[in-house]
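Here is one chain, start to finish.
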Amino acid sequence: MSFRRLISVGALAASAAVLPALPGQAAPSTGHCPNPNYPTNSSTITLSVSPRTVTAGRSVSAFGELRKNSCAIKGATIRIARKRVVNGVATGGWMRVASVTTDRNGLYLASIVPPHNELLRARFAGTSDGTFKPATSGNVRISVRTKITEAATKGSACRITLTGATRPVKGHHTVTIQKRGAKGHFHGWSKFATGKTGKRGHYSITKTANCGTTYNLSAFIAKDATNLSGRSATIFGIKATH
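Its structure:
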């Protein structure tokens, strides 16, 4: 099933798709779908995620469908879980991050905010009477950039101070302040100054610049074991003055 169809149906059924199953909720069913048990009573579940690369603090959409043969399974609880990826390797156990309910078309949609590189999977536990068998999706990998902010303050004697923070917290990591050309004249980045974050992931870097020169500066933090590299928005037009 296409991403466009899943999202459009999921949006129309948002109230059903993003709420967890409640006690006393009707059991999963295939409605009036003919021959739901032919040729097998196995359940199948899919999982797609968009986008697959995101900056920390931003959400991704996890969506898919649950079926029994050609029949949609509605009213079923889908549990989405994550597993951390460290140095490119899945590590530790699965931790549930969302529970959602399929709509009448067997579709589900959930919003996830991943803090680190991770795998996501979706699982349907089945029913105790055996009418619906358990099903687990394939794993989908999500890559997460470190979020880093930047603010600039001009001091006396042509000093410029850059401050900011990281998310997730990156304590004692190197931050590189880089400079570039003006808007419309980008020719790559070069180093302006470097410094370290404190234990809470904040940094403050002061540099004595060339008096009278205008700078366009951005903060950069390299990738590590659990996150991709991150870059702040560029601050344009910082002029060093006496």
